[in-house]
Each structure stands twice: as structure tokens, then as C-alpha cells.
């Protein structure tokens, strides 16, 4: 199959790798030159620089012959546009969109996107795969485009043994609580030591969920 | 008429101002407060005229009163935001008249198919330029002296 992926972030890269390994032909459209370079470096000459919601870019990327177009960017308006342009102008057989804001999922389906996947769900599955041991992540969407995320600090590697101030948190993230394995609350303080299986609870903007999970639990 | 307008772009500003001067109830919504500065002070300072919010988010649209308006105009500079907001206005909030601005003329039929009035300023500007260049209007250059 020929599969066109728009968005070379974490989700796009993992998908591309998996699909290439499964023997498919893949192109990733990404608008950041640095990410395109990184993609070419790790996966070979399969990346294309451009805004994938732009009809000319989709044409250039082969949307007309694509069996599947997957929109994986962090913004829902882009992902919807990619799928609608692919389907409407290039008659792509199937389209799949990552949905960052859960309120958009059924709207996307109604507007002709064939499949939708929740970004947070995808990330959780991905991180669970990567991080050894049992990792639990809970997510609750709240008002104002925010999510409450509870994630466990994985043992070893980069996860445990750091002070809170050493964790590279994305902007606008607020740590609400740090709970030890035994369930007592540690102080939310820059000098607090994160230990394996501590549960970090934070209020995070939806588009920063990926960066937050990576900062606390990612070994990527 | 009650109108909710997303995007205090240049086009958005012109439309908002004209409607406001005609006495319609206009609300302009934008994510960046500094963009309201292109509205003249007397309009900007009218109560309820400017609303800070993201027109692609249902909560913000509701807070801006989308449930009661007769028309929703997606006039930001971003085609993708306009497309999502316009389709939300149409299907989620059943706004009777929805107008969507797109820079990329290729997208016009996509949103039109959903009963949205789509306007491509780029196509219109290109047409005007071409019209100005029509042979009958281009004077011939005088011979060099």
C-alpha cells in the first residue's frame, strides 16, 4: 500500500517506522525542516517538507494514488483539513485523523474522515510499549482545552532519581500533586525527588500532553 | 441581525465595522487581544463587541453566544481554523448562515458541499488583476523617443 502521513512528530514517526517495517511505501509530510532532516536520517529518504493541509503539497505527496492518508499533527483543524482535501480533491481511498480534542471525534466522522484515533490514547499505547514495566496513565479532559494527567514515574533510565526542577516540563503545565507509591503526598517543590512509581498529577494543555508524558515518563 | 465573527483580520475588521455601523449586533472573536486594536476605539470599546476565544473550540463558541446568532463568519487568516469553525457552526450549532473565507481556492467546493457560503479572496483578487490586464485596458507603450 502507499500511505501518506502528514505530521512528523512522535506519532507520525512511529507510524512511519511501523508501516515501513510492514513493507508499505510511506511518505511523511512535515513542515519543520529540522524534523524532516531527522526523519531522513533515521528512516531514509521518505520525508517531504511542506504544509500538508495545502492542496498543492498533498498533490505533490501523491495523495491521488495514496491508499491511505493519515493526519497526525497536534492541531485538529489541520488534521481535518488534510483529510477533507485528500478525500474531496484527490479521492484518496481512506483517511485517518488523529483527534487531539475529544469533542471533535464524532464531527470528524460526520464530515467524512474514515477513521479517527484519539491522540492521548495513541500516546499512552506508545509509551506503554516503550517503557518497561507497568506504566499507568490516566487522562481526564477538563475545561479550557486542558487535561488532568496522572502518570507514573518509570523505574530506571531517565525517569526516577531526578529532582522535580530537573524535569523539562512543557510550558503552561502545572503539577497538582506528587504521590508516592504508598500513596502519601510529596511536596510539589522544585527540590522534590522523583522516585520510581511516584504518581505525578498535572494540569496540562491538550497540545502539550505528549511533551508532558515524554518529560515525566518518556525514555525516547 | 446577530452576527458572530471569528478572526479580527483585515477582512474581519472591515466586515465587523460595516455591520456595526449599520446597527447590527456584531461580536468579534479572536485568540489574540492585540488584534482587536485594528478596530477603531469607539467600536472596540462597545460592550460585548470583542470576545477573546478560540473559534474552533465549542466551549468558547458557546460562551460567545453562537447558539443565538443568525450568522457565523469564519474570517481568520487561517484556512484550517476557518474550515473547522465553520463546519462546527453549521452542524453543532445549526447557525442558519455560515460564511467561510479560504485563501486556497481549491478548497471552495469542499466546504460548499456542506451548505457553507465559501469566499476565496485570493481568487477574487487574481480575477481583478487579470481584468485590469485585459487587452482593451492595457494602453500601448509609446514608442521610445
Keywords:
heterodimer, A: about 220 residues, alpha/beta, six-stranded parallel beta sheet, five-stranded antiparallel beta sheet, 7 helices, 13 strands, about 25% strand, elongated, B: about 140 residues, Rossmann fold, 6 helices, globular
Structural write-up:
The complex is a heterodimer of chains A (220) and B (145). Chain A is of the alpha/beta class and 220 residues long. Helix content of chain A is 32%, strand content 27%. In chain A, a hairpin with a 4-residue loop joins strand 7 and strand 8. Chain A is elongated. Chain B has 145 residues and is an alpha/beta fold. Chain B has a single domain, classed as Rossmann fold (3-Layer(aba) Sandwich). In chain B, 36% of the residues lie in helices and 18% in strands. In chain B, strands 3-2-1-4-5-6 form a 6-stranded parallel β-sheet, sandwiched between helices. Chain B is globular, with a radius of gyration of 18 Å. The N and C termini of chain B lie far apart (61 Å). The model of chain B has no long low-confidence stretch (mean pLDDT 94).
- Biggest interface found: A-B, 22 and 23 residues
Structural class per helix/strand content of chain A?
Answer: alpha/beta
Low-confidence segments of chain A, ≥5 residues, pLDDT <50?
none
Quick one: biggest sheet of chain A? 6 strands, parallel
- CATH class category name of chain B: Alpha Beta
Multimer state: heterodimer
Number of domains of chain B: 1
